[in-house]
Design a protein that fits this description.
With 218 residues, the chain is α/β, with parallel strands linked by helices. The protein has ten helices and six strands; from the N terminus they run βαβαβαβαβαβααααα. Helix content is 50%, strand content 14%. α3 links the parallel β3 and β4 (81-86).
């Protein structure tokens, strides 16, 4: 009897990196790369078109990063298995990913050891973290609450997108075009974000976005 291959969608903004991922995965007899995307928007579209078993998704991408691509994919298909790849092991990056519902998080420096193992675990319905990740991140995977409530957690998915684009230096008009909404809607989101976080200046929003892992510092 033929065993069905695990269908994988690869997402990374560097073509050479995707090539490396593909080679690692396709060396395995039970894995098939069914598509590649170079950014978050393309990943969302291809996921809907291909319905892969596992999405291997880079965290740090321009415009729509891995975190927000995952949010959109899971909003449309809550059972999708998403494996986040990152060079960052900081607790906040890991916790942010786990809290939105990704099934695994591995470090790019451990790909040779962890990538195929993680894909198999996720395809089988399990969850996977690189062993180097902290015990606090594992608690986040199990759904244990943080010690103190954080107003940042009250932001909606759309507000998180707007906050990230503000931190990237986009104007209100540019954000409106990227998200397909009006400039007035962006202004309302911006005001709500500032009110929720208790800040009054754009510079403070940028600092919060960096601290929370929505953007990477230069």
């Amino acid at each position: 009897m033929t065993v069905r291959s695990i269908r994988v969608l690869l997402v990374d903004d560097h073509a050479l990196v995707r090539q490396g991922f593909r080679r690692i995965l396709e060396d395995e007899p039970d894995m098939e790369v069914v598509g590649e995307a170079g950014g978050g928007a393309e990943a969302i579209a291809l996921d809907a078109q291909l319905a892969p078993d596992v999405v291997v998704l880079d965290l740090a991408m321009p415009e729509i990063n891995g975190l927000h691509a995952a949010i959109e994919i899971l909003r449309r298909e809550p059972t999708r298995r998403i494996l986040m790849l990152s060079m960052y092991s900081d607790e906040q990056y890991v916790r942010n990913a786990l809290e939105i519902g990704v099934s695994g998080y591995i470090l790019k420096n451990a790909l040779e050891n962890d990538l195929t193992r993680a894909v198999r675990v996720l395809a089988g319905g399990g969850q996977f973290l690189s062993p180097e990740l902290s015990a606090v991140a594992i608690r986040g995977l199990r759904g244990e609450p943080e010690a103190e409530p954080d107003p940042f957690t009250r932001l909606s998915e759309r507000e998180l997108q707007v906050l990230r684009l503000i931190a990237l230096g986009r104007t209100g008009k540019e954000i409106a075009a990227l998200l397909g909404v009006s400039a007035n809607t962006v202004a309302v989101h911006r005001a709500n974000i500032m009110n929720t976080l208790g800040v009054h200046k754009a510079a403070e929003l940028v600092l919060i976005a960096v601290k929370k892992g929505l953007v990477q510092p230069e």
